[in-house]
Amino acid sequence: MIPFHKTYITGNEKALIDRVISSGSLSGNGAFTEKCHDFFQTEFGFKKVLLTNSCTDALEMCALLLDIKQGDEIILPSYTFVSTANAFFNYGAKPVFIDSEENNPNMDADKIEAKITPETKAIVVMHYAGIACEMNKIKSLAKKHNLKIIEDAALGLGSKYQNEWLGGFGDLAAFSFHQTKNITCGEGGLLVINNPEYFAKAEIIWEKGTNRSAFLRGESDKYEWVSKGSSFLTSEIHAAFLFAQLTSFRDIQTKRISLWNKYKNELKNNAFFKVPETTDDKIKNGSVFYLILKNEGLVDAFIQFMKENGVVVSKHYRCLHDSIFYKNQFSSEKLINCQKIASQLVRLPLYTDLTDEEQNEIIKLTKKFFN
Ligand SMILES: *Cc1c(COP(=O)(O)O)cnc(C)c1O
After folding, report:
1. Mutation to probe ligand 1, out of 50, 51, 56, 59 (largest number of atoms < 8 A from CB)
2. Distance of CA 227 to the CA centre of its chain
3. Which of 1, 58, 199, 288 is the most buried (most CB within 10 A)?
4. Kind of pairing, strands 189-193 and 172-176?
5. How many angstroms is it from 333 CA to the middle of ligand 1?
6. Crossing angle, helix 356-370 and helix 296-308, to 10 degrees?
7. CB within 8 A of 203, min separation 6: which ones?
8. From the first residue on, what is the mean pLDDT of each consecutive set of 10 residues in the chain (371 residues)?
9. Number of neighbours of residue 142 by Cβ within 10 angstroms
10. Measuring from atom 14 of ligand 1, which residue has the nearest CA?
11. Do residues 303 and 369 lie in contact, with contact meaning Cβ atoms separated by under 8 Å?
């Protein structure tokens, strides 16, 4: 059986966790947190980063940093994970959903401007499969209407748009280290703060609304309640696990990108499916490989055929605008591209330990089914 996903373990995780245990310092904002922060700052040039317990946490921090209130509106794709919306909805914002592009799950940048109102606070982008959204268009819209940009870059670590790392475009950006992502610590995330306006405030919100970070740096002789906040910081146990993975970051990415490229080279667009579109200015990270099939019936038949032949392939998100939770409270229009993609997209197994033989088998079966 070839599973859809397998967790990659570098082998260094236990030793680093042992060091945390021996040190007796298990709580957050310690030595391994700092090592992870250094890694992201050095590797990607991010100015300020904070490890969180999840990408969902990092997105909630964005809502707190933007001071989201009842009545605010947030523009976001409908084709995304629920946290992209919930993080802002939890603080009172109304999600305003944008359709996907015709043959690309990413939100259609040309459909954003018509949805901007005086209540709009931010545009939240999500780079599906680590393939960048049209950031030039989105940046100029945000500038024109004085809106913040938040990147849900959960699937975007190590991808680029026009030579710049994803996560570097928004005022704020969020990454995920959930088990299913390229780099993991089980549950984990990262907030990237690109807009200096938020540097100090983010640290406070992260540390439960206190100025403990400044205190730890010796900038204050006590710490206390200074703002709203919550416990968003990661324990050192998770940070150590994550750091072990980060030391293999380049190898993991290289392997995943080569698997992605092989799928792309072997499986060509035809009457039954389309493969992801990429352009030279969008460098991807091998996070997700998908096919968009001709119709929904074909999806179920393909999943069934692969299962009978020992391979698990999987659909992905449902449209958020079409979810029970949203539809029960708000009227929603049809977003046809998103609905099409939600029902016609299938992901193939893609994980660091996928062997050549396994991938050849997946490709062979896929070709067989569609021939
Ligand atoms: C995985 C994922 C999340 C959630 O990440 P967590 O770390 O599990 O909170 C959010 N958005 C997108 C697009 C994701 O793929």
Report:
1. 56
2. 28
3. 58
4. antiparallel
5. 25
6. 130
7. 50, 213, 214
8. 97 98 97 98 98 98 98 98 98 97 97 98 98 98 98 98 98 98 98 98 97 94 96 98 98 98 97 94 97 97 98 97 94 92 98 98 98 89
9. 23
10. 154
11. no
Q: What pLDDT is recorded for position 208?
A: 97
Phi, psi (deg, nearest 5) at residue 269? -50, 140
Both tokens of 150, joined, read 């938040």
Residue located nearest, by CA, to atom 8 of ligand 1? 178
Q: Which residues are near ligand 1 (CB < 6 Å)?
A: 54-56, 80-81, 83-84, 126, 152, 154-155, 176, 178, 189
Of 152, 242, 285, 288, best ligand 1 pocket probe by most atoms within 8 Å of the beta carbon: 152
Closest CA to 246 of 22, 14, 38, 15: 38
The pLDDT, as a whole number, for residue 331 is 83
Structure tokens at 195: 């807009």
pTM above 0.85, yes or no: yes
- What is residue 332's predicted lDDT score, i.e. its pLDDT? 80
Closest ligand 1 atom to 58 CA: 9
Using the CB atoms, write b or e for 8-43: b if 16+ within 10 Å.
Answer: bebeebeebbeebeeeeeeebbbebbebbbebbeee
Indicate which atom in ligand 1 lies nearest the CA of residue 155: 15
DSSP structure class, residue 288: -
Q: From ligand 1's centre to the CA of 176, what distance in Å?
A: 6
How far is the centre of ligand 1, averaged over its atoms, from the C-alpha of 42 (Å)? 24
**Structure confidence at residue 324 (pLDDT):** 95
- Atom nearest to 54 CA in ligand 1: 7
